[in-house]
From TrEMBL, chain A:
Membrane-crossing segments per the record: 12-40, 46-66, 73-92
Pfam families: DUF3649
Organism listed in the record: Pseudomonas songnenensis
Domain of life according to the entry: Bacteria
Keywords carried by this UniProt record: Membrane, Transmembrane, Transmembrane helix
Entry protein name: DUF3649 domain-containing protein
Record keyword Transmembrane present: yes
InterPro entries: DUF3649
TrEMBL record, chain C:
Cross-referenced InterPro entries: PepSY-ass_TM (IPR005625)
Organism (species): Pseudomonas songnenensis
Residues passing through the membrane, by range: 12-32, 134-161, 182-208, 334-355, 367-390, 402-422, 434-451, 466-489
PROSITE patterns, alphabetized: PROKAR_LIPOPROTEIN (PS51257)
Protein known as: PepSY domain-containing protein
Keywords: Membrane, Transmembrane, Transmembrane helix
């Protein structure tokens, strides 16, 4: 019984952390990615991708609590964050094109 | 202040409300005859549409739409509050609001 | 099924924990819909509705005579229909402190009015809780919680359309409160969603710096300059020539725009030869006014730059404008006020559902939650009323008058919180007494206003000054509603409980 409670507690802590930190990380990565790859002028890329970030964060928070496994949900979060951040920050001079 | 648009939005909400048996029994006698639910919904949509047109005509496209959203939400709130506490005021409120709107339009 | 359960957990706790904070934010924002009207009420010098005849150069002259430090920038705004007086603000070089002064419109010379926090107090409480940058981040996080709670609330609601018109005040506690929570949440959903999203979007540059970091390599000045299309030039370290007339620049700007009004006029590093005057256009006919600022050389009056904002920035301005409701006049502000009250009602209803559920289980710890409810839901409106009392009773010449008003607000709130905690076991009696206090405070304000200024209700109604009169009238209505609720709570114990709570949030 007490084992179940502590598992449950970890489960919730993991999800809360994923929603707050993971959600922000994914939103950050998506924003950075869109700010580089949207086919728009630089100021517009930056503003539109930033404005969309809150929708991404909200969606991740919902996903985190809807996911079946409290541990495996981290996989897509870390994966998406890593891939998009790398794609954004390693795009060389292209990311600062006007 | 667009009272007529508010009256129309309220009328639209009343029509939608009448399509539901739960509320219809409260508002009308059992033997009252009404058109079918689809027609009521179409009429309601028409009311909302005219209200939107009025909002846009008086405030312009952008602001008129925002005002319309506000009026529709508030008309629903008014209707539900009346339904809960003063159900017999729900139907008389339609002509009262419409009359007020017309007077406002004339003056 | 599983999805609904997990979403229900998310909605319950993700909504409950920030709900007191969200109440503060939403209530303050609701009051801030009429912040400028409240400011007029709080400044007796504005009561007779005189419009200032000063010019921008008079205001600058006052600044030059009274402030000797080197300035980083100063900015001023001329009289408008809602604010018929000149406002001036400045920032001393190498400090981050900002000073503000408002000038008496009745005086032919620039003469500051008595200090007050004004209606802006609620605006600031709304966006940063008077806690600077940290407060701004806290409010942003609360906004994100609200977005998540709204979305998860839609997912768990089984019958959004079937129960759309349903409110059963006579049902058992939990059912009735759930109906109320659903009603204000579902009917107001478009408003709550849009306001939560546009609210967090206003400080997007602080909350989500990712895009600027990657696309501008973190160069914030370049980022803002390019996005807003604004103009900036470096200081040259030489004394400035004699400045050109600001009033002339305003007239010139109006000519450039082909009519239209000037809004903020700002001068950057005025004590340097590189000083720049920005004249911003004021346009209330659109949701997101385009802000085509004109920049002039402060010495020669030469036009240096015409702001050409990017499409993205225009979209941002539109969203921010939708949140701030500075368009569409009193009608739009009234709609926002009522929908804001609906948001407050939604929060109170949701908390009552949570409480009713736990009370049925005989959970003893709910008294503490009730105490917290009473300290916030009653405490904030009561403290707001106390602030207005402080505004009227603190003498005009009092040093640091605005700070004193802030302390009246904070002190009153602390007292109500303490009172709520001490009386936590007698919830009904506490509520009734708080309603009575609210009635006394609200009904007393028009009287004290009449005693301490010339702008009393009969005078303002006699002049047809509905803006000023409506503040007094609103306070009277709120006071009467509180009194009636308290009275009902006394006479019909069971049925009146619902009414009292709903009315309580309408105080102030």
């Amino acid at each position: 019984m007490s084992r179940n409670v502590s598992i449950n507690r970890w489960n919730i802590a993991s999800r809360v952390l994923a929603a707050l930190v993971g959600g922000y990380a994914v939103a950050y990565a998506v924003t950075a990615f869109l700010a580089v790859y949207l086919p728009l002028a630089r100021p517009d890329r930056v503003v539109f991708s930033s404005l969309a970030s809150f929708a991404v964060w909200t969606a991740v928070a919902i996903y985190v609590f809807a996911a079946r496994s409290a541990t495996r949900l981290w996989l897509p979060i870390i994966g998406v964050t890593a891939v998009l951040c790398l794609a954004a920050f390693l795009s060389g001079d292209w990311r600062v094109r006007p | 202040m667009l009272l007529l648009a508010f009256a129309l939005a309220y009328l639209g909400m009343v029509l939608l409300c009448l399509t539901m048996n739960r509320h219809r029994g409260v508002l009308l006698r059992a033997d009252a005859r009404l058109p079918g639910a689809t027609i009521l919904r179409l009429l309601a949509a028409g009311c909302f549409g005219i209200a939107l047109w009025q909002g846009i005509a008086s405030q312009g496209g952008e602001i008129g739409t925002v005002v319309w959203f506000g009026l529709v939400m508030l008309s629903a709130l008014l209707l539900v509050l009346l339904l809960a506490w003063r159900a017999h005021w729900v139907l008389p409120a339609v002509p009262v609001l419409a009359l007020g709107g017309l007077l406002q339009g004339v003056s | 099924m599983k999805l609904r359960q997990s979403m229900a957990g998310l909605h319950t706790w993700g909504g409950l924990l920030p709900s007191w904070l969200l109440f503060v934010i939403i209530f303050a924002g609701t009051v801030a819909c009429f912040d400028k009207e409240l400011t007029r009420w709080m400044r007796p010098a504005l009561h007779d509705g005189v419009v200032s005849s000063l010019g921008a150069d008079d205001v600058r002259g006052w600044l030059q005579q009274n402030v000797s430090e080197e300035l980083h920038a100063f900015w001023m705004h001329g009289p408008t229909e809602r604010e018929p007086y000149w406002r001036l603000g400045w920032e001393v070089d190498a400090t981050k402190t900002i000073h503000n002064v408002a000038f008496d419109p009745r005086s032919a010379q620039a003469e500051p009015m008595a200090e007050t926090v004004g209606g802006e107090f609620f605006f600031k409480l709304h966006y940063n809780l008077h806690a600077g940058d940290i407060g701004m981040y806290i409010v942003g996080l609360a906004g994100m919680f609200m977005l998540v709670a709204l979305v998860s609330g839609v997912i768990i609601h089984r019958r959004i359309f079937k129960d759309f018109f349903t409110l059963r005040p006579k049902a058992n506690g939990q059912r009735a409160w759930l109906d109320a929570h659903n009603l204000f949440g579902v009917v107001g959903f478009p408003f709550h969603l849009v306001l939560a999203y546009t609210g967090v979007a206003i400080f997007v540059a602080s909350y989500m710096p990712a895009a600027a970091q990657v696309s501008y390599s973190g160069n914030v000045m370049q980022y803002f300059g390019e996005v807003m299309g604004s103009f900036e030039r470096e200081e040259v370290g030489q004394p400035p020539p004699a400045p050109v007339s600001l009033d002339a620049l305003i007239v010139e700007s109006q000519r450039q725009w082909g009519g239209g009004e000037a809004g903020w006029v700002s001068v950057h590093h005025p004590d340097d030869a590189s000083a720049v005057v920005d004249v911003r256009r004021r346009d209330r006919s659109r949701i997101g006014s385009p802000q085509d600022t004109l920049s002039y050389d402060a010495g020669t009056g030469e036009l240096l730059n015409r702001q050409d904002a990017s499409t993205g920035y225009r979209a941002y301005l539109w969203l921010a404008g939708l949140h701030m409701a500075q368009f569409g006049g009193t009608l739009v502000r009234l709609l926002y006020l009522l929908m804001g009250l609906a948001g407050c009602a939604m929060l109170v209803g949701g908390l009552q559902v949570w409480l009713a559920k736990r009370e049925q289980r005989g959970d003893a710890s709910v008294v503490w939650v009730r105490a917290l409810n009473a300290s916030v839901f009653a405490g904030l409106p009561l403290a707001s009323l106390a602030l207005l009392w402080g505004n009227r009773l603190i003498p005009a010449g009092f040093a640091e008058r605005a700070v004193a008003e802030g302390w009246v607000f904070a002190g009153a709130w602390l007292l109500v919180a303490l009172w709520s905690v001490l009386r936590r076991q007698q919830g009904r009696r506490l509520l009734r007494e708080q309603l009575l206090l609210g009635a006394v405070l609200a009904l007393g304000l028009p009287i004290i206003n009449a005693l301490t200024s010339d702008g009393h209700l009969i005078a303002s109604l006699g002049r047809g000054d509905w803006v000023l009169a409506s503040v007094d009238l609103f306070l009277m209505v709120a006071g009467l509603v509180c009194a009636a609720s308290a009275w009902r709570l006394n006479t019909t114990p069971a049925a009146a409980a619902a009414r009292g709570r709903a009315a309580r949030i309408q105080e102030a």
